[in-house]
Amino acid sequence: MKSEDKEVTEMGANNGTGMEIPVAAFTTYEQLQPQRGRKRSLYKNHVCPKCYRSYKRGSHLNRHMRFECGQSARFRCPYCDFLSKQSPNIYKHIRKSHPGFEIGYLDMRA
């Protein structure tokens, strides 16, 4: 089905059957196409049993369960009160909020 075959109106789209479908009720054909040659997954199949957060990759769920879910923030910015459960977030915070300062973090568990 080509995108030019669909007639879009203010109410929605005419799918050829004479029925108008609300715009928010469907995903366009272009949005379902793979980007840069990769197959895109539309579903996140790995779900945390504690908080029901979902991830596309099992390794991301494992990291979440080991370091994030039910844990207090482990890393702190040495220049302000910003806390994070992952150290890369501290690096990004310092580069953005404290430009010119030395990049590092305080480990609350050590």
TrEMBL record:
Transcription found in the keyword field: no
Keywords from the named record: Metal-binding, Zinc, Zinc-finger
Start and end residues of each C2H2-type domain: 46-73
Gene3D superfamilies: Classic Zinc Finger
Keyword Zinc: yes
InterPro entries: Znf_C2H2_sf, Znf_C2H2_type
SMART domains: ZnF_C2H2
Recorded superkingdom: Eukaryota
Alphabetized Pfam families for the sequence: zf-C2H2 (PF00096)
GO molecular-function terms, A-Z: zinc ion binding
Protein name: C2H2-type domain-containing protein
Organism: Cotesia glomerata (Lepidopteran parasitic wasp)
